[in-house]
Amino acid sequence: MTEQLTMPTSWDQLPSGDVLHSVVEQALLPWWQRIFGYHLLKVGCLSQTLNTSACPIHHQINLDSLQGTSLQAEPAQMPFKNHSIDACLLGCLLDFHSDPLRVLREVDRCLVPAGHIVFVGFNPLSPLILGEMLPQYRSKFPWCGHSFTPARMKDWLNLLGYQVIHDERLIYHHLLTQLELNSRMQRLLESLLPTTGALYIMIARKLNVPLTAHTIKDRRTKKMWLPAAQANVAAG
């Protein structure tokens, strides 16, 4: 039986959520200008509130299973045709969904070749591990979810045929106390352990692999003599 996880409905439910929201928006801002197409899908409540106005894709769809969403649907069963979405934003959705692999496969089904997936996730190999060690925090966000390491995400994307074009860590803090950006401790951790940011941003492009291999053309020099039968006729 699949375990049911509680999912945050706003950034305010996360510790220092307003700061996390702002930092993620700033980190994604330069990338939205590089993503093109006709349809941008933002899956989950946290994705919907991220500002994507800098993206040249004008038709942007908010999808979630909660009532009041512009498109109410289960992320693991999206009502879209195959290869109909150009880009998809998953803001900390896989960390709290009961079947993250199924969501990822469903996104892959809907995405066009050369389309983009934008991930935001919590990094378990970070100072966040301190919260997992303390029982009073295990039932709170973000520790009540099932976070995946960036390496695991890359493995999944590689199996599905994606190329990771950006991988970044943010927020070198345990989130157990009030978050202060650019503190001395954060700068020290970022310098000494750059892969241990509490949040990661990953952007992947779907590879457009041909269904059949191209026939290799034979470029050998053509024979300059006639076959024996034709040579005899020519001689006669």
Q: Assign a percent range to the helix content.
A: 25-40%
Low-confidence stretches: 210-236
**CATH topology value:** Rossmann fold
Name the CATH homologous superfamily: Vaccinia Virus protein VP39
At the first level of CATH, what is the class?
Answer: Alpha Beta
Q: Kindly report the spatial arrangement of strands forming the biggest sheet.
A: 3-2-1-4-5-7-6
Quaternary organization: single chain
Work out the strand percent.
15-25%
- Cα-atom Rg, whole angstroms? 25 Å
Shape: globular
* Number of separate structural domains: 1
The helix count comes to 7
Question: Could you explain how this protein is built, in words?
Answer:
With 236 residues, this protein is of the alpha/beta class. It has a single domain (16-209), classed as 3-Layer(aba) Sandwich (Rossmann fold). Helices cover 27% and strands 21% of the residues. It has helices spanning 17-32, 45-48, 100-110, 129-133, 150-160, 184-192, 228-235; strands spanning 39-43, 59-64, 71-72, 85-91, 111-122, 162-170, 199-206. It has a 7-stranded mixed β-sheet, sandwiched between helices. Strand 4, helix 3 (100-110) and strand 5 form a beta-alpha-beta unit. The longest helix is centred in the N-terminal third of the chain and has 16 residues, at 17-32. It is globular and about 45 Å long. The N and C termini lie far apart (87 Å). The model is unreliable at 210-236 (pLDDT under 50).
